[in-house]
Design brief:
This protein is mostly beta strands. The protein has one domain: Porin. Helix content is 11%, strand content 54%. It is built from 1 helix and 14 strands; from the N terminus they run αββββββββββββββ. The protein has one helix at 2-27; strands spanning 32-41, 44-46, 49-51, 56-65, 68-77, 84-93, 98-106, 123-133, 136-143, 151-159, 164-170, 187-200, 206-216, 221-231. The strands form 2 sheets. A 12-stranded antiparallel barrel has the order 1-4-5-6-7-8-9-10-11-12-13-14. The longest helix has 26 residues, at 2-27. It is globular, with a radius of gyration of 19 Å.
């Protein structure tokens, strides 16, 4: 399995490197940019939760113009418990470092709903606000779907250079026990430490990686993960 992941990583590096050079040549004289990326993760850890099981692949595609960006991202877990997402997002970042975000989470099924009349049952919509103040970042989001209550999530994080500390709280899906299916009230659900760095391969190439741990006290779960990131 390690050899397969390594081969995929090397192939992705070559492909994305070619795309990066090509995209830079095409957009060097234009404010509009088209970015692509791929993240290979040991497991998909998201806001104090583990989605699916086994290694996960996360491709991204984004078009940016000024402070506005639209794009799509996917998640495919490869373990026994498959996890699948194809998400569409739109963002706008103001000059004062405030970002408004809107994400459509799609986790399979008929993309337009059955008979085109219940599309909201196959999609989860999430408006969010992000604010960066130097190394300090604030984030709040509301996650809602038809016939379900809205789930709130908020976090504050600070980059200490040696590591990044994240403290998040939420309700609903973030604090509901995966075993007993109880809970759901607001509580601390994400205490995380992470670090992004790069492993130098040679003078011209380095491998960007991220690793971390996350504790969800509300559901008594602890996770450790690592990821390789490729991006233009």
């Amino acid at each position: 399995m390690k050899r397969i992941v390594l081969n995929i990583a090397l192939l992705a590096t070559a492909v994305l490197g070619t795309l990066s050079v090509s995209a830079q040549e095409e957009t060097s004289s234009c404010q509009t940019q088209c970015n692509v990326g791929l993240e290979i993760k040991s497991s998909e850890i998201w806001r104090g939760l583990m989605l699916g099981s086994g290694p996960a692949f996360k491709p991204t595609f984004e078009i940016k113009a000024g402070g506005f960006a639209i794009g799509a991202e996917g998640t495919m877990c490869t373990g026994e418990k498959l996890g699948f997402e194809s998400n569409i997002f739109a963002k706008y970042r103001f000059p004062f470092d405030l970002t408004l975000e809107l994400t459509d989470y799609y986790e399979g099924g008929n993309w337009l709903g059955v008979n085109f009349d219940n599309i909201a049952k196959t999609h989860t919509i999430e408006p969010a606000i992000r604010y960066d103040y130097g190394k300090l970042q604030f984030f709040i989001a509301l996650n809602f779907m038809e016939d379900k209550e809205m789930d709130f999530y908020g976090e504050v994080s600070y980059d200490f250079d040696i590591f990044k500390l994240t403290l998040g709280g939420g309700d609903g899906i973030y604090t509901t026990s995966p075993v007993w299916n109880n809970g759901g009230d607001f509580a601390i659900c994400n205490i995380g430490l992470s670090k992004s760095t790069a492993i130098t391969i040679n003078d011209k190439f380095s491998l960007p990686i991220e690793g971390g741990v996350a504790l969800n006290p509300a559901i008594e779960r602890f996770y450790a993960y690592a990821a390789i990131k490729f991006a233009k």
